[in-house]
Write a structure and sequence with these properties.
The protein is mainly α. It has a domain of about 50 residues.
Length: about 80
Amino acid sequence: MKPARAPTDTRKLRRDSERRLFLLTLFVLVVVGAGLIALSYGMGPAVVALTCLLFGAGLIGILWLIFTLIGRWVGEE
């Protein structure tokens, strides 16, 4: 007889997937975006673009935090 498998925690899997996708999005936005701008236009515009990209990443992070807190508040955890 096979041993019983532990039940799958789909909520934890979803949270982990959302967190990984969020971090990947920020990485692509900031690092890849700034790198492409640096390759295309040089380091001067890349520094300016990096500050704008970091600001945008911060806004995305704030929205993600708000939605995460709302989800925990309503008991979606």
